[in-house]
Amino acid sequence: MNFISFIILLAISVIVAVILHFVFNYYVRQKWNSIFSEIVFGWIGAWLGSPVLGYWFKGWKYDNVYIIPAILGSLALFVIIVEVFKLFNVSTKE
């Protein structure tokens, strides 16, 4: 993976995390340290998006980063992480 691919995945992760955290109030914790961990998990989900979900829309890709599967992967892992923390009753109101 080159640096531009890393930045694209990071941008996708930041956008997904910010929208879910601040617009939809869907988060593990309300504080700022939570958003940073959500961005990290979103990046991992975006990175896994293309290999797991497939290589769609060849026109919307850079190198080996396919944008739509990366967005869906980031969103999926973000939701899984928040739901797992809620399942184990980790405080979401701090």
Task: Looking at this protein, list some descriptive labels.
single chain, 3 helices, mainly alpha, two-stranded antiparallel ribbon, 94 residues
Helix and strand topology:
Layout: H1 3-23, H2 32-53, E1 61-62, E2 65-66, H3 67-87
Antiparallel strand pairs: 1-2
Helix pairs in contact: 1-2, 1-3, 2-3
Topology order in helix (H) and strand (E) letters: HHEEH
Compute the number of helices: 3
CA radius of gyration is 14 Å
Strand content: under 5%
Beta-strand segment tally: 2
Most strands sheet: 2 strands, antiparallel
Helix/strand-derived class? mainly alpha
Low-confidence stretches: none
Helix content: 55-70%
Number of structurally distinct domains: 1
Shape: elongated
Plain-language structure description:
This protein is mainly α and 94 residues long. It has one domain. The chain is 68% helix and 4% strand. The chain has 3 helices and 2 strands, in the order ααββα. Strands 1-2 form a two-stranded antiparallel sheet. Helix 1 crosses helix 2 and helix 2 (32-53) crosses helix 3. The longest helix has 22 residues, at 32-53. It is elongated, with a radius of gyration of 14 Å.
